[in-house]
Amino acid sequence: MTNLIKMTEKPYLVQRRRIRQFYWKGRILKLGMNQRQAFEAQRAADTAALNGVVYLAMLLRRHQLITAEEIEHLHSMMSKPLNLNENADNPLVQNIHQHLDEQFAAILKLI
User: What is the value of pTM for the model shown?
Assistant: First the structure.
């Protein structure tokens, strides 16, 4: 019980995340997906989200609704998980990180 109290600084977000995890687990079982298919689905969802954020940043920058400093901050926040030590030897993570760097460099050059 005390463990849950310490973990729930933002109870809504934690609870929402748990619901989504249970939903995905149930969905995987219902669809008969194996672990590889679940991984591929998660990777596709992550790629779509990444592309959406980069595209939105590009639109905001093009219309001068976001500053270069805000773009750099967004880039650093999105890069943090990719810079973790456990991801240092993963070539897929390095490839994603390089792509993200290139996309944000292009956004900064828009104006």
Answer: 0.64
- Check: CB of residue 68 under 8 Å from CB of residue 108: yes
**Count of alpha carbons within 13 Å of 88, Cβ hemisphere only?**
3
Secondary structure in 3-state letters for the chain: CHHHHHHCCCHHHHHHHHHHHHHHHHHHHHHCCCHHHHHHHHHHHHHHHHHHHHHHHHHHHHCCCCCHHHHHHHHHHHHHHHHCHHHCCCHHHHHHHHHHHHHHHHHHCCC
Cα–chain-centroid distance for residue 40? 15
Average pLDDT, the chain: 76
Could you tell me if 90 and 99 are in contact, meaning their C-beta atoms sit under 8 angstroms apart?
no
